[in-house]
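Q&A log
Question type: sequence-to-structure
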Amino acid sequence: MARLNVPSLASRCVVRGKLPGVPRNGIFGQMDAWITLLAGIAGAVIALGGQQWGIWNSSRTRAGELLLEQCAQLIALSEDFRNRAWEETVLGQKGRVDGWDVAAHRLAMARARILCKDSAVLEALAEMEESGKEYGGHLRRGDVSEEELAALRDRNRASINALASASSTVIRRRLKAI
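Response status: OK
Response body:
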């Protein structure tokens, strides 16, 4: 049987450069180059955007953690002050308030003010500072009635609770976890 020399359909298309997906004569067309360039730019923008979002999210989380530490320290130091004042006034122990770390309290207060610009937290910080000063001032004078001292103690306790409530709302928002 004699073989006919008929080229196949695929070989004819390659020769003419019309096979889909095969570049013409080994060179990309202009449209293919633009699509490739745009895809590369889009990929780079997506990668850089994701990196920046990660950095922003990390710094926000870190600021939330720092605020949590400072508010917790403020609350603990304020509670310590209240306990020491109670030990002096009710139990009659001398020098308990003198041993309280006022420098750490002031430093934590300043850090909390710097880290947080939420109005509810700032108001709670101001009220806690004011009620603490009033309570401490009346303790140092010593000529305060028991009812007045109890009212100041209750006001100070309420201000500590207000700070705990306001700061927990802000911290939860910042950390998005609790």
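Response note: The chain has five helices and no strands.
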